[in-house]
Design goal:
The protein is mainly alpha-helical and 183 residues long. The chain has helices spanning 8-19, 22-56, 61-101, 126-130, 177-182; strands spanning 5-7, 105-107, 146-148, 158-160. It comes from Spraguea lophii (strain 42_110) (Microsporidian parasite).
Length: 183
């Protein structure tokens, strides 16, 4: 096959490789937005309570200021997570458009099974396979259940449950072993 002509399989595989972690990233940020929404409700209720008390007694003024700052921080975090979701969605759309719009010709004919070494074809050539994104401390691709480290500066980000000793998703924020040891 000519280098500039790609099958539907090649294009779809390329799109899948480019976007394989986007759903995980979006799920993570949606979860973080929900956590911030709950925190916002709790903090705003406490703020209302202390504002009423501050009207009667000036000693609650510091508490009001404290909860106003906390509310502002929660709101900023929520906006940051929503912005990340927006960026991921835009990048997903951009990668999809780039994959189908390039200066390539699309070969819509069915593949010739006799010329394909295996019946199930991935459509990934060797250079694409070598560039496949690696995750976790095991430096392998994404598979099975994976978890995202909640430390923004984490160098790896995504981990396989088995590699970090998890059987199920934790109910709270999760920090990877590397980030724990760095703190």
């Amino acid at each position: 096959m000519d280098q500039n002509v790609y099958s539907v399989f090649d294009i779809l595989d390329n799109i899948l490789n480019l976007t394989q972690t986007y759903p995980l990233d979006i799920q993570h940020y949606v979860k973080m937005v929900k956590i911030q929404d709950k925190e916002y409700l709790v903090v705003s209720e406490k703020l209302k309570k202390y504002r009423k008390k501050a009207l009667k007694n000036n000693k609650y003024k510091n508490k009001v200021e404290e909860y106003e700052k906390r509310l502002s921080t929660v709101f900023e975090l929520r906006m940051k997570y929503l912005e990340n979701i927006k960026k991921i969605s835009e990048k997903l759309q951009e990668n999809f458009v780039r994959s189908i719009e390039g200066n390539t010709l699309l070969d819509l004919s069915e593949p010739n099974i006799e010329k394909i070494p295996s019946v199930i074809r991935t459509g990934i050539n060797m250079s694409e396979r070598d560039n496949k994104k690696l995750y976790c401390t095991c430096r392998r691709g994404s598979y099975g259940d994976m978890i995202y480290c909640d430390v923004d500066s984490c160098k790896i980000g995504w981990y396989h449950f088995g590699c970090v000793g998890l059987n199920s998703a934790p109910k709270s924020l999760w920090v990877c072993p590397l980030c724990k040891s760095n703190n």
